[in-house]
Amino acid sequence: MFLPRIVKRMSPLLGSRMSLNACRFASTDLVRTEVDDKTGIAVVTMNRKPVNSLNLELLRELSSALDAVEKNKSRGMILASSLDTVFSAGLDITEMYKPDQARLKDFWTTLQEVWLKLFGSGFPTAAAINGHAPAGGCLLAMSCEYRVMRPNLTIGLNETQLGIVAPSWFMSTMENILPRREVELALTLGKMFSTEKAHEIGLVDEIVDTKEEALAKCTEFIQLFARVPREARALTKQSFRREALQKLDRDQDLQMFIYLVNQPQVQKGLGLYFESLKKK
Ligand SMILES: CCCCCCCC/C=C\C=C\CC(=O)SCCNC(=O)CCNC(=O)[C@H](O)C(C)(C)COP(=O)(O)OP(=O)(O)OC[C@H]1O[C@@H](n2cnc3c(N)ncnc32)[C@H](O)[C@@H]1OP(=O)(O)O
């Protein structure tokens, strides 16, 4: 169970530019949440070595962090990773391969919850993509309103390459950013874009060299809304995203996921993929 720890500290996170700002921290081992007192912006940092693969515990803590950001009335939220080369490797394959059925259900329900909270949040959101962002990692980044990425990385929904089908709400999330034709091609190919290509097509908004610059650019984006009335902004965003949010029928989606993941050929594919990752 995540219990936010709120203390006052000096921020070591954003380098010298922000180091004098007092921050409130609400942190656990897997997710660190730091609110800059000057900007009022929360930085939520995923910290699950080695690749921030999204298991049930990480998802639960992300869900609680999103609640805390909402409750604290932060000016906005930046999603980042503590790891040098990976933003998030997507869903943890071990949650889906030879799964415990009760945990599998919990896992998917929590993923739905995280997406609903992040994609549907009223506060401004930005992703500082300081590492690779395949599949579920790409979903998290795409659920934010702005994406800043370091060069020579990869991002995309690669599910078809794994022999699985991205759920329709993953698709809607990409469709909120890219033209339909581009989305269809990306999804059917299971395309992983380089940072540079992702920027060219508009999947990523800016390219910067360091994580610090990414955090600074995300901060600039969120500050664009400083003078926009908060409620009006939130309702506009939520109204714009409503169709995608309402399309998710949680029960039906859960049943479909459980059914498909338990299919022998899907289990076989997941097992082979997991082995190939280990042998890499
Ligand atoms: C009709 C059929 C329908 C079926 C429907 C099913 C329902 C649909 C549901 C699922 C949707 C799924 C979306 C997903 O998110 S699936 C996950 C997809 N993720 C990936 O493909 C990424 C895989 N990982 C990588 O490409 C790399 O690891 C990378 C992120 C680029 C980082 O590379 P690198 O830094 O070189 O690290 P390693 O590859 O050496 O990995 C280090 C260890 O981490 C383990 N690992 C990596 N990714 C995962 C993962 N996603 N889950 C669990 N574990 C992972 C890897 O095995 C290494 O482990 P070890 O050190 O023990 O060897």
Characterization of the model:
Keywords: Acetylation, Fatty acid metabolism, Isomerase, Lipid metabolism, Mitochondrion, Transit peptide. Homotrimer. It is found in: Mitochondrion matrix. Its main location: mitochondrion. The structure is a single chain. The strands form two sheets. An eight-stranded mixed beta sheet has the order 1-2-3-4-5-6-8-11, sandwiched between helices. A three-stranded mixed beta sheet has the order 7-9-10. The chain has eleven helices and eleven strands. Helix 1 links the parallel strand 4 and strand 5 (76-81). The chain has a single domain (23-224, 231-278), classed as 2-enoyl-CoA Hydratase, Chain A, domain 1, CATH 3.90.226.10. The chain is α/β, with parallel strands linked by helices and 280 residues long. Residues 1-20 have low confidence and may be disordered. The longest helix has 19 residues, at 101-119. Ligand L434P2JQ is lined by residues 50-51, 53, 85-86, 89-94, 132, 134-136, 158-159, 162, 164-165, 167, 257, 260-261, 266, 277-278, 280.
